[in-house]
Structure formats: structure tokens, C-alpha cells
Write a structure and sequence with these properties.
Thiol Ester Dehydrase, Chain A, four-stranded antiparallel sheet, alpha+beta, two-stranded antiparallel sheet, 38% strand, 110 residues, HotDog_dom_sf
Length: 110
């Protein structure tokens, strides 16, 4: 569910969307650090909301907080995830691309 949230967020952030960022521009966004806290049980069929907030923007990486919350406001799960921007050609870390950096610094929480 969180991966779908990231892809949808990118689709809203960038004109080319997530697929264009990866496939056309040949940029990657692998996870380099992940922390997950499970706070309450979710059961099959539960309706939940997902939230995403930018915690930190570095020169080559960004850290996001993603939360799963019940419709009555109970925090079910929280993930803090750090991604690094890479070239899919060289497979090396690269500075956050200008279009992404600009979108990140102007975006609203999802």
C-alpha cells in the first residue's frame, strides 16, 4: 500500500509521473533505510487512510514519513523511509534532479 502511495504521490508531483521518472528519465529511488512501527491491529476489510509527509530533503536523498490511520484516527502503522536518488545508467547516487527538488520544496502532504 505504501508503494502505491509513493507512486501516486510522484504522479501528482511530476508531469511525467513515477513511470516517466523511472523509465524515461532513467532515475532510480531505492530505499537505503527503513523503520516501521506497528501501533495497532488492522484486519482484512478495515478502511484506512494513508498519509505521506516529507521529513527531510538532502542533496541526494529524501526521508518520508508514511502513516496508516483508521477512519476514526487511530494510528495503525508508521514507516520512516529514506530514499536515495540514483542514475539507472551508472547505478550511482546522484543529486536530486532539479524538477523533483523543485516539486518537493513546493508540495503539500498527501
Amino acid at each position: 500500500m505504501f508503494n502505491n502511495l509513493i507512486e501516486r504521490w510522484f504522479d501528482e508531483l511530476l508531469p511525467e509521473g513515477f513511470a516517466g521518472y523511472i523509465l524515461d528519465q532513467r532515475f532510480g529511488l531505492p530505499t537505503v533505510h527503513l523503520e516501521a512501527d506497528f501501533k495497532a491491529i488492522s484486519r482484512m476489510g478495515d478502511d484506512v487512510q494513508l498519509e505521506l509527509q516529507v521529513e527531510r530533503i538532502g542533496s541526494k536523498s529524501l526521508t518520508l514519513c508514511q502513516r496508516c490511520i483508521s477512519l476514526d484516527g487511530e494510528l495503525r502503522m508508521q514507516v520512516t523511509q529514506t530514499y536515495v536518488t540514483t542514475s539507472l545508467i551508472t547505478h550511482q547516487a546522484i543529486p536530486i534532479p532539479d524538477a523533483l527538488y523543485s516539486a518537493l520544496t513546493q508540495q503539500q502532504p498527501v
